[in-house]
Design brief:
The complex is a heterodimer. Chain A is an alpha/beta fold. Chain A has one domain: TIM Barrel (Alpha-Beta Barrel), CATH 3.20.20. Chain A contains 15 helices and 11 strands. In chain A, strands 1, 2, 3, 4, 7, 8, 9, 10 and 11 form a 9-stranded parallel beta sheet that branches. In chain A, a hairpin with a 4-residue loop joins strand 5 and strand 6. In chain A, helix 2 runs parallel beside helix 14. The two termini of chain A are 32 Å apart. Chain B is an alpha/beta fold. Chain B has a single domain, classed as Alpha/Beta hydrolase fold, catalytic domain (Rossmann fold, 3-Layer(aba) Sandwich). Helices cover 36% and strands 19% of the residues of chain B. An 8-stranded mixed beta sheet of chain B has the order 1-2-4-3-5-6-7-8, with helices on both faces. In chain B, strand 3, helix 1 and strand 4 form a beta-alpha-beta unit. In chain B, helix 1 packs parallel to helix 10 and helix 2 packs across helix 3. In chain B, 51% of the residues are buried. Classes of the chains: A alpha/beta, B alpha/beta.
Chain lengths: 413, 259
């Protein structure tokens, strides 16, 4: 198994009262409430915590990207990737992910990822995402073409990584006359690509068709199983059998020496008024053209306040009960996670350890306990269950490098 | 006298364009708002008393097929010009409503001597010198159209309780707006420079409480067009055709029929 440490890098020092008063903590919640002095302190603490995580034995550090909101201080995932390339030695640097549609220049994006891969000596996992609706609006990027831009940018970047330049690209959304960057990844054929997501069925199917691992972000167990089923079916249709190496799972896990302290801190996972990406108008998270037409009817009712959030809004207690938040002592957490991986069988896991205003000492203690006690136990249990990560399984980086699909083998010969 | 409206479908630019037509007299092409058009409106009926009124749905709106390649109101303008050509219509007057006003202006810019009269009602298309065009991306499917009326009762008169079907339609309309008018949002930087060649006398109409397109833009249109006059409609929002149908119909009729 590949076990990662994750934090949103919350902007813990923002005025929550002002957010409540304004009625939103995303997109248009004024950055007058963003304190760069406090953010400077937090960034440096988070950086030290990543170094600590490596020392404590995590396999990877998961990074992400969000804009215009206090819940996440990573408006550019490649920034921290570059920093980790320099200050860490062993851990995988896992981008989950670069929001491809936000880039008007995928060539430049490929250069950044390539540089980080080279400087880290081949430790990048180059996850790609579509980016949430708010991210499109914050970056002035057209949500109606989100899916098309995602696929085209992916195709352009992977072409850069697998074919020598110079070449010309005349695409629908991107046009480049001289694609010839003097920066390509050191990993061959290219860094592993993982695709995180939550809801979109089309994304799951596309991911399976590429044979990229799909990382379910904090979904309930039932929803996760539905995702795995969808993926497995699509995989079978293109000729391979999906296994644990194709599946990853991000879950919120907070560990402390006492259950009481763990539960108290774990309540911080609800710090954005229980909303994953902050309190926001529904049309910000799902601008027109962004989600699939099959969801339109239910969504428009919700967006004008006539229906409940299709995602539901479980309470903290419900999430603990349903193993969407795991909190306790190392033994308690290990117990819950063993149960979880027996049912969901992922080869990759992200343990989202800290959120909100959990104090520095507690964040560090959580990282220590995760790295030194929880992860070794889960790794061992995972090995018993045959939950191999992509490296252990020697999984192909992309479908086209498969050696277990007869037609592919024939084509290769 | 009730109007007999006919509905027809036309193959244009790779898709099916829906057209509603009624009345007789000089031809009048109505370019509808960004939020689409109800099938029937008192405004259309009033005009059909004096004119041959054509109300197509823009490709991707209402009953017209979406054209995947379409990227700009200029493209929509070309489709409507193609329609007029297929119908063999000449001397058409254009009535552009809001977003439809931008389309009408694009049509006129591409055929400067091509139209009889140009009527632009709270048009998008030119960047307002003061203020911003209301960003529909930030607000709900109800709040956006509601903000286009001065009197909430006028909104209810037209849309009633607002069915889920209507909400779905508004989401589709919004998606089409994003596909064709995302950036710059709701204006064309070149358009003010191209209006100078338009032969047709122009009438620019603005609701005095237009919260979608600031009335500061009216002056920009008057400056850009060589022969334009401005009329403001009192106690009226952006959707003048829906809020003050009789008054607007009167303004249009008098303007088109004057020599």
């Amino acid at each position: 198994m590949h076990l990662m440490y994750f934090t949103e890098q919350p902007m813990a020092a923002y005025d929550a009262q002002e957010g409540l008063k304004y009625g939103a903590t995303a997109l248009t919640f004024s950055n007058r409430y963003f304190n760069p002095v406090e953010a400077s302190r937090l960034y440096n603490e988070y950086l030290e915590e990543y170094v600590l995580a490596e020392e404590c034995g995590v396999d990877g550090i998961m990074l992400n990207e969000h804009h215009n909101a206090p819940f996440c201080m990573q408006p550019r995932t490649n920034m921290f990737g570059a920093i980790l390339a320099a200050v860490t030695k062993r851990v995988k640097i896992v981008f989950l992910g670069n929001p491809l549609p936000l880039s008007d220049n995928p060539v430049q994006l490929s250069e950044e990822i390539s540089m980080i891969d080279m400087i880290s000596k081949g430790r990048v996992v180059s996850g790609f995402v579509r980016g949430g609706g708010q991210e499109q609006l914050a970056n002035g990027v057209n949500p109606a073409f989100n899916r098309e831009r995602f696929v085209e940018a992916h195709d352009l970047i992977t072409k850069i990584w697998t074919e020598p330049g110079p070449f010309r690209w005349e695409g629908t959304h991107y046009q480049h006359r001289v694609v010839n960057p003097w920066a390509v990844p050191v990993q061959k054929p290219y860094p592993r690509v993982w695709i995180p997501g939550v809801l979109s069925r089309e994304t799951v199917i596309w991911t399976a068709q590429q044979r990229y691992p799909y990382i379910a972000l904090n979904t309930a167990i039932d929803a996760t199983k539905t995702i795995w089923d969808t993926y497995s079916k699509a995989a079978a249709e293109v000729g391979y059998t999906a296994g644990p190496e194709n599946f990853g799972y991000l879950i919120r896990v907070h560990v402390q020496d006492t259950e009481e302290k763990a539960l108290q801190n774990a309540r911080q996972f609800m710090w954005m008024q229980g909303e994953f990406t902050g309190l926001a108008h529904p049309v910000w998270a799902n601008p027109a053209g962004y989600f699939s037409p099959s969801g339109r009817r239910g969504f428009v009712e919700f967006a004008v306040g006539r229906a409940k959030n299709p995602r539901g809004q479980p309470t903290f207690e419900e999430q603990v009960r349903d193993t969407m938040i795991v909190a306790g002592t190392p033994d308690q957490v290990i117990e819950r996670l063993k149960h979880l991986i027996e049912h969901t069988r992922p080869g990759i896991m992200g343990l989202w350890g800290n959120d909100g205003t959990v104090p520095k000492e507690d964040r560090r203690r959580c990282i220590e306990l995760l790295g030194k006690e929880v992860m070794p136990a889960i790794r061992e249990h995972g090995a018993k269950l045959g939950l191999k990560d992509p490296w252990e399984a020697n999984a192909p980086v992309h479908l086209k490098y498969s050696t277990d699909i007869p037609t592919m083998r024939a084509a290769a010969e | 006298m009730s109007v007999a409206w006919t509905e027809t479908a036309h193959q244009i630019a790779g898709g099916t364009l829906h057209l509603m037509r009624g009345g007789s007299g000089r031809p009048l092409l109505i370019l509808h708002h960004d939020i689409g058009s109800p099938d029937r409106l008192p405004f259309y009926d009033a005009l059909a008393g004096s004119f041959d009124v054509l109300v197509p749905h823009h490709p991707g709106w209402g009953k017209s097929q979406r054209l995947e390649w379409m990227r700009h109101p200029r493209d929509i303008a070309a489709v409507h010009a193609w329609l007029l050509s297929d119908l063999g219509l000449k001397d058409v007057s254009l009535v552009g409503l809001g977003f439809g006003g931008w389309i009408a202006a694009e049509m006129a810019s591409q055929a400067p001597a091509g139209y009889r009269r140009l009527i632009l009602v709270g048009p998008m298309g030119i960047k307002p010198p003061a203020g911003f065009i209301y960003d529909q991306a930030i607000v709900s499917y109800l709040d956006y159209p509601k903000a286009g009326f001065h009197d909430p009762a006028a909104f209810t008169r037209v849309y009633g309780d607002v069915t889920t079907d209507q909400l779905e339609q508004w989401d589709i309309c919004r998606e089409m707006v994003f596909r064709t008018a995302w950036k710059p949002y709701m204006y064309n930087q070149a358009l003010p420079h191209l209006m100078g060649g338009v032969h047709a006398p122009a009438l620019v109409v603005w609701g005095d409480d237009d919260r979608h397109v600031p009335i500061s833009a009216a002056a920009a249109w008057q400056k850009a067009l060589p022969n334009a006059k401005l009329e403001t409609v009192a106690a009226c929002g952006h959707y003048v055709d829906m809020e003050k149908p009789d008054e607007l119909a009167r303004l249009v009729t008098n303007f088109v029929n004057a020599n």
